[in-house]
Amino acid sequence: MPTKNTADVATKRxxxxxxxxxxxxxxxxxDQADGLNRWCRDCCRAKDKRYYNGNRELVKQRARASWRKHxxxxxxxxxxxxxxxxxxxxxxxxxxxxxxxxxxxxxQYADLNRKQDGLCAICKKPETRQNKNGTIRPLAxxxxxxxxxxxxxxxxxxxxxxxxxxxxxxxxQQAIVYLQGEQGCLTVNPSRSxx
Length: 195
Description:
By secondary structure, the chain is of the alpha+beta class.
């Protein structure tokens, strides 16, 4: 049976809750004339939740059986991901990490990165630290640990530096005074190189 293009449908009436909703509120279903499920996502979600709550042990038992049956295949797939396409694997991991930990999307991160010209907000240099697979790490998201407010993107060195100084402007000022002053009690022989 040929299916209609779902882009042709602007709204649809849910056969469960009888509400008129936008097409995006319905899942896709190829065997339907309009290509959309008859129930809206909310009604489907509620039905699934009721089933799970009434059959929790059965659902868990089926999930465990499926995992045991396909365990080796799934593990092999997940182990091969970083090797098949390291850049894509890193991009997906980064996207998940920034959304989970900071609540921003990959597009918001890219906008912030563009505003900083891909450079660290403190030292104005690009990131040089590499991942295990040899790809350059993305700039780290610096945020206020008390408010959660994102301040900018930093290279690994600058991010670690302000982290070790506990995001304290007082400690940072003391470090500046220390670096500018002559606090030491030993003089290093200038002809000898010190690493």
